[in-house]
Amino acid sequence: MTNINGYTCNCCGKYHEELPTSYGNPAPVYYHIVSPEEQEDRFELNEDLCIMDNEHFFIRGCIEIPINGTDEYLIWGVWVSLSETNFNKVKENWDTQELLEPMYGWLSPTLPCYTDTVNLKALVHPRPDGIRPYIELEPTDHPLAVELRDGVSIERVKEIAVELCDNK
User: Fold this and answer.
1) Angstrom distances, CA of residue 77 to CA of 10, 23, 108, 158
2) Name one Pfam family in it (predicted).
């Protein structure tokens, strides 16, 4: 298997010891499109769960894309909307060993390296012991769904690192 080593970033020109393979969103996309005052009034948000307007329910999970030729994954921490019933099931069983059945939802982040990721169909696979759920996307031709299905090259992981470089 290939090892993921450091790389020289085309963006900042610096050598980084490790290639970033995990990215996340602190809140669903809807949180970021309202004013800070509205955020406080309309959202209940922690690291894993979010309620908007007491009627829209979100859970944070992980899209885990295999990095071809390695044992590693490119991980996107994303938010998915759930029905209130399923949200409450997840919340009640968050810290237990009980494994819940997969649940349908809608992807709710904007991922900078892909177009139109909001409202992609998703299947949330809860995991035991408070581990964030695995998020499976509907098998479509959307680039994110294709990468989830087929994996990505190390070169693609480097492209994403450059696109998300802090020093732009």
Assistant:
1) 24, 6, 11, 18
2) DUF2199
Which pLDDT value is given to residue 10? 61
In a domain, 38, yes or no: yes
Fill in the amino acid letter for 43: F
Local mean pLDDT, 10-residue blocks, the chain (168 residues): 60 74 92 93 95 96 96 96 95 79 94 92 89 94 97 93 70
Burial class (CB in 10 A: 0-12, 13-18, 19+), 17: exposed
Tokens of 93: 């069983």
Domain with 52 in it = 21-151
Residue 166 located in a structural domain? no
How far CA 135 is from CA of 6, 8, 122, 128, 158, in Å, comes to 28, 31, 7, 14, 23
Q: Which two tokens stand for residue 50?
A: 């979010």
Q: What is the CA radius of gyration of the chain?
A: 17
Question: Quick check: is 112 in a domain?
Answer: yes
The structural domain count of the chain equals 1
Q: Is the separation of the CB atoms in 52 and 38 below 8 Å? A: no
Return the number of other C-beta atoms located less than 10 Å from residue 75's C-beta.
16
Q: Is residue 130 part of a domain?
A: yes
What separation, in Å, do the N-terminal and C-terminal C-alpha atoms of the chain show?
Answer: 33
